[in-house]
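Regression check, biotin case 262:
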Amino acid sequence: PGIAFGLDAPYSVEYRDRIGSTNERARELAAEGKSDVAVVADEQTGSRGRLDREWMAPSGGVWLSILTRPDVPTARAPLFTLAAAVATTDAAREVGVDARIKWPNDVLVEREGSAAGADDSDATGRGGRKLAGILTEMEGEADRVGWLVVGVGVNANIDPETLPAGATSLSDECGAPVDRRRFAATLLERYAELTDSPEALDGVLPAWRERASTLGRRVRVDTADGIVEGTAVDVAEPGALVVDTDEGRQRVHAGDCEHLRD
Ligand code: BTN
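Current build output:
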């Protein structure tokens, strides 16, 4: 199936016109002991978003989930999510869309003049419109990943009228529909390249930094332990955001990040 999809990556592809959720299907395959499968769908009827949020996945998007069983410590698992954000950004750039990453893994497009300080504010990140989101699910032992499902949702050929507020699509940015098969293949190939060995994983943070929108910006991060506000200065292993706050430097491992006006 990998060959039929024209894919130069070590995954077999299960394609569905319509599915509840590709993440859910990938989890079923994981329960059957499978690995190295990419589930790709044209439309999802029961998508899962981060933090239990709703995610719209009508026909025309790129909705996919990659199931692997990487032989790495559980502590490094967040790198796979960041790798998916890098891979999605690169696939978008290949079709001419200047995508950037908002920590930890939202892929945004900041239009000319709409960077920090402009009034393009929205629910998902001021100064940018959300092109893609990523939801990772995993199971493993304390020290080793068992299976890992990285789900990527890209608003590919979606009419802007039907997008949620603060979102954009590849077709809207490009002014014409994109080749979704090719886009998915680029994304999957790049993801495989970034994650296929422990050495390759070492390259994820440098690649993420180069594509980041968040670094150098004022941010407000909503974490389980409260709000962290300050200047985002770096991302550190295994994907923590380093924020300079009035109380000093803090590392944030998980949370919802908002870019503030500078
Ligand atoms: C987010 O909330 O930003 C993450 C959204 C992730 C959506 C994708 S679409 C493919 C995969 N299947 C799902 O049900 N969710 C993810």
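Comparison notes: The two ends are 48 Å apart (CA to CA). Residues 21-23, 44, 47-50, 53, 55, 57, 63-65, 106, 133-135, 151-153 surround biotin (CB under 6 Å). No diff flagged against the previous build.
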